[in-house]
Amino acid sequence: MLALLGIPLGILLLIVGGAALVAGASQIAERFGVSPMIIGLTIVGFGTSAPELVITLVGALRGETALAFGNVIGSNIANLALVLGAAAMFRAIDIQGDLVKREIPLLLLVTMIITVMALDNVLEGSSPAIGRSDSIILFLLFGIFLYISVRNVLRGRKQDPIFTEIEEHPAITETASASRWTFLLLISGFAALTVGGEITIRSSVAASGALGISTTLIGLFVVAVGTSMPELVTSIIAAWRKESDLAMGNIIGSNIFNSLIVLPAGGLAATIPVPKGGLLDLALSLVLAAALIPVFLLGKARLGKIAGLVLLVVYFSYAAYRISAA
Questions:
Q1: Which CATH number does the domain 2-325 belong to among 3.10.20.600, 1.10.3470.10, 3.90.226.10, 1.20.1420.30?
Q2: pTM
């Protein structure tokens, strides 16, 4: 029972720590003259994925690689099905910005690359895994992605709606705080992330033993959903404000960050074997990413409430199947 209570406590500390880190870093960036748009696309994107990063890295270092794998892939699945579906249920999502449209095929490509990396060991007769060499390649891909994104921001700012939305709603405090307060935010953020990560890992392992289910499932459907709460709240608010590009950009950016930073960070700390059922999880994340292509790049580029409901049904049906099949 204590283990089950420890998981939400740990996740709450992770979310609070990520928010404090974003606030402190945003204030520093603002003082150096960094525009709200750049802060929104970089620092805020990192902050919403900070819980996943801490869980994956700490889990890999402690030998809980199944939990680390489940957290990353589960978060990606939750973002594309649970978060996107919930946001679409609040208000239909229409994509107009070129930046988001360019990132959707990139997400599909990245997901395919990770799936191939997991399967290449199988072709050689060994168990599927994400190793250190795979992680280095993913980090290099993130460098390319970052370069392309910054170049596009500098060249194609023009009338892209997502730029306007970020400028109008900067995710930073409007008044500059004292240096001492900023420093306190950063320190408290790191502390909350560290403590929250440790509590979540320990509680997840204990809950796995008490309930008799694998840590992979705990990572997929408990920890991953908890660490995806910042994306869920941000996307629902953005959709409600009719800022569809910002809602979609938050989801796609988070998944790309999870795939190109969070997963390889864990893979560098320790080789991450693909657990039982993990290939099916990768396949679902690939199908969900592929499904975005005809929805947003062809036709009216609109995700309505019916499609949102379908995504929610897919998510909960898959969760029920995975848990019952364990």
A1: 1.20.1420.30
A2: 0.83
